Structures are given as C-alpha cells and as structure tokens.
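for ur thesis appendix - RUN domain-containing protein 3B. copy paste whatever u need, i formatted it the way the template wanted (i think)
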Amino acid sequence: MASLGVGLHLIRKRGAVRSTAVERRNLLTVCRFSVKTLLDRSCFETIDDSSPEFINFVSILEHVLNHRLKGQTTWFGYESPRSFWDYIKAACGKVPHNCIRSIESMENVRSSRAKGRAWIRVVLMEKRLSEYISSALRDFKTTRRFYEDGAIMLGEEAGLLADTLIGLNTIDFSFCLKGDGLDGSCPAVIDYTPYLKFTQNADSISSDEEEMRTMGSSGSESSTPDKTATAASIFTEQSNLVSKCKRFEQKYRLALEQKGYLEELVRLREAQLSEAVSHNKALQQNLADTHLSHTLEKEQLEYIILELQDQLTVLKNNDLRSRQELTAHLTNQWPSPDALDANAVALDTLLYRKSTGQWDEKSFQSLEQLSADMSLSQTSLEPSHTLSLEARLTGTQWPHQDKEETPSLRGLCGSLTSVASYKSLASLKSSECLASPATEISSPGITPS
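the 3d part is after this line
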C-alpha cells in the first residue's frame, strides 16, 4: 500500500508538472499570436477598449503575469489571492518617471485587479510596457519572492516575452480609464478561436477539387464538354490565385511585423544612444566648469598671496624707517655729557669772576650767550636731573659782604648741574646780582654742598 501511495504521488506530481509546462507553453504561444494580431489590426484601424484583439491580449497578459503567483498570507495563516499589481508595484518602483503613484491616486480604481488593468493601459499608451517588464525581471529577488517555481516570470521565456512586447510600441493606443474594462470583479477570459487554424494537406485539396468537378459535371449535364472543361479550368485558376494571394498576404504581414519590430528596436537604441551622449556631454561640461573654477580660484589665491607679501614688505620697511627716525630723533634731542660739562664750567667761571669783582662787559656778553645755549638744552634734561639741580642751587648760600674772599673758594664753586641755574641766566641782567656791571654787588658766600 505504501508503494502504491508513493506511485500515485509520483504520477500526480508528474501530471502537475506536465500541466504546468503545457499551460506555460500555451500562454506564451497565444501571447505571441495576440501581439501579431494587434500589429495586423493596427494597420487598418485604431486600437481602443472596444477592439476584440486588445481585450483578448489584455486577458492573456493578465494570465501570464498571474501565472503561479503566490498568495498573500494573512494573520491567521491563510493565503488570500493576490493580483499581479502588487508585484508590479514592488518591482517597478525604480523605473524612472513611472506611473505607479498616479494609478494609486485614481479615484475610480479601487481593487488591486482594476489597478493592474489600468496600469496595462497606461503603459501601452506611454509605449513602455516592455521597459516595465524588463525592469521587473531584472529585480530577480522580488520576482522570486512573489512567484512560485515553474512560473513564467521565473523562466527564460520571460525575457523573450519582453522582447516580443517591444513591437507594441509601434501602435498608437487610445483608451478611456473610466470605462467598464477596469472593473475588477470581471475575470479575464481568453478567446482561443482566432488562433485555431486547420491546415489542409495536398491530398485533401486534390480530393476537394475532384469533388467540385464532379458536382459541376452532374449539375450541368446539358452543357457541352467544352464548357465543363472551361469552368473547371477557371475554378482551378481562381483557387490558385486565392492561395497565392493568401501566401503573399501572409509574407507581407510577416515582413510588416518584422519591419515594425526593427524600427522600434532602432528607435529604442537611438534613444538610449542619445541619452548616453547627452549624459556624456553633461559630464564633460561639468568637468570643464570644475576645471575652470579651480583655475580661477588658484589664480585668485596666487594674487592674494602676492598682495599679502607686498603689504608685508611695505610694513617691514615702514617699521624699520620708523625705528631709525625715532632713534635719530632721540639722539638729536638728548645733549651730550661733554657739552653739559663745558657749559657748567664756563658758567661757574663767570659767576666766580662776578663774585670777585672781575666783571666786565665782555664777560656779561659771554654770560648771555652761555644762557642762550643752555636754555636750548634745558628741554632735553630729565626730571630727575632738574630736581637734583634745583636742590643743589637752593642749598647754596651766598657769603656776606664783609667776609674776606680768598682764592681757596674757587674750587668750591662746583659745576652747574641744575636747571634752576639755567633758568636764572636769562634774568641775571635784570636781577639783583646782574643789575649793572659797574654796580657794587655783594658776593655771596659759597659753602661746600
């Protein structure tokens, strides 16, 4: 019993595999036939929602996209049926300028099946159905997640199907997205009758011709043999012409289909080439702009560096010149010690002569000149020198008139080291000491400081 059960299971499995393979082959074959039928019909009339060829093609495409599509698992572990729109939404989201959002926002389309049918019509009008299918097939991970083993979308035939759909880009479709064709409650039914064809062999054709001759001869017994032969020959010629016309028509349609496919393929390749060329030009332009901006920035930086170097050089020169001028100014303003000592000795001498009575007009003129010279150097003395000179001058006491003057007091005159003495030189002529050279002036006593 166990072996019998295993055998039945193997038979069922083989039957399921065979039925799946047959279903795949039938769907792909009928899909190719429907594409050819649409191409032939588009040569004579506009394809819209009412065209039976289009309705049949949409039904076939829905069956192809729904073939072995996995169900959606609910919270309770059951699988609910799913439409191919969920797969298209997940796999075609990266297609540039896609229409998924616009279809999702349509008010009259609610169900998932209706959205899928609206998507088919929109991409056919945009002439991008093959592009969407090819993009979805490239996302193999998402395709594997939505479809079971043996599905058409997981097989090698899916790529051939996408190439077959390129021919539909030559057709100008016109649809109304508010019609009854978007009703998601109606299932998609395939009509196989347009694709069923009975092929008659040569023997059958000859037997039919003999039968027609026999029927013609029996029906026209009164006619002469010449007329019978003429009618048979005319019928044969007409049948031959009809068969030839059908063959030529078939060849013409095949050539027209191939021509449309090649034209669409060339147009697609030209569009890709033009896009690549424009992208390349944009990259080259960006590179040139970047190089130009880099060059300009480099030149600006070099100019700024040179300008800063020039400014630094000018500042260094100005600083050096200012230092030199300040040093020279300080050097010129500060009196030398030799000049101070010489002026002080000369003033001491004149004061000593005055005190001893050796005063004359020439000495007075020398005293004025010496006072003028020392007044020039008055401003260059430091305050500490000024204070020390004033202290020494105030500490000096003049002797009384009746005190005897001795030569030993000469060395006690000291040297002029105070600014007070310089200031007093300008007023010596009008003071009590220098009122007149002939006036009798009492000599002050000089005490050592």
